[in-house]
Every structure is written in structure tokens, then in C-alpha cells.
Prior knowledge:
The chain has three helices and five strands. By secondary structure, the chain is of the alpha+beta class. The chain folds into two domains: 10-74; 91-154, Transcription elongation factor, GreA/GreB, C-terminal domain (Chitinase A, domain 3), CATH 3.10.50. Strands 3-2-1-5-4 form a five-stranded mixed β-sheet. A hairpin with a 2-residue loop joins strand 4 and strand 5 (144-154). Residues 83-154 form the Transcription elongation factor GreA/GreB C-terminal domain. Keywords: Elongation factor, Protein biosynthesis, Transcription, Transcription regulation. InterPro entries: GreA/GreB_C_sf (IPR036953), Tscrpt_elong_fac_GreA/B_C (IPR001437), Tscrpt_elong_fac_GreA/B_fam (IPR023459), Tscrpt_elong_fac_GreA/B_N (IPR022691).
Amino acid sequence: MTGTPEPISPDARRAFEQELADLRAERDAVRATLQGTDADAVGDRADQADELQRADDTARLDARIAEITDRLDGAATAPAPSPDVIGVGSSVTVRFADGTKESVRIGELADDRDQELVTADSPLGHALLGHRAGDSVSYRAPAGPATATVVSIAAPGGT
């Protein structure tokens, strides 16, 4: 690690900015419920527990907002990935030890809707970064050690 934040892709920047806007709106809604209470009012234990939960929610939201803000403030926009070396944004075809081939795209943020996405911080994604077609990589899969060979690298949106 260099101590400076890794560059992020334009898509990841937009996703972080959207998450930041959503978190700020949620935080404002939670804070409004905290400000709307009368500190001198007598309430039961359920009211007090609810108030503590809202305060905890606010602290959690504030922490995530600070984390995203720091990430966005300190990171440059990543250049387009090289067609020769695997980086964030690369589309890669790999052949696993059992002979099966799979095409994956290296991304920064998990997306349940994108079945081809492998995050850069996942074991396979991390192992692939910086490699070229023909390289073999080793990584730790849930079932144990695994290997894969890079068959090809395609430009983003390419085939």
C-alpha cells in the first residue's frame, strides 16, 4: 500500500456518490426523529430503547458517510483498464483447474444483479489484478486453494 487511496472508476465514483446521497437522506430522517423528542418528557423503557437505537443508527450512518467522503475526496479517477494487463474494469476469460471457462468482469463494488462481476478485493479478483493472458494465478477459494489461467482480456464492453 502506498498510503494514498487507490484510484476509482467513474462507475464506482457514481455509485459511491449515490450511496452518499442516500445515507445523508437517511441520516437526516433519523436525526429529525431525535430532534422531535422532548428531553424532559417521561417515557417508558421502550421509548428510551427506541431513542438509543436511533442514536446508534445516526452514529453508524455518520461513520459510513465519513468513510465514503474520505474515499471520494482522496481518490483520483482510474484510467481505463489496459487491454493487456488485468485491472479494475477488465473483462477476463479464465480457465479453472477443472477445465471450465468463465468470463468475469473485475469491479470495485459488489452488485447482486451482475452475475459476471468479481470484485477486486475478492480472492479471485485480487489474484487476477496485474496479470496478462496466459498467466496462471493461485488464490484461496472457500473450498481451499485454487488456480486459474487467464485465457483472454477484453476491453470494457468488448467481447
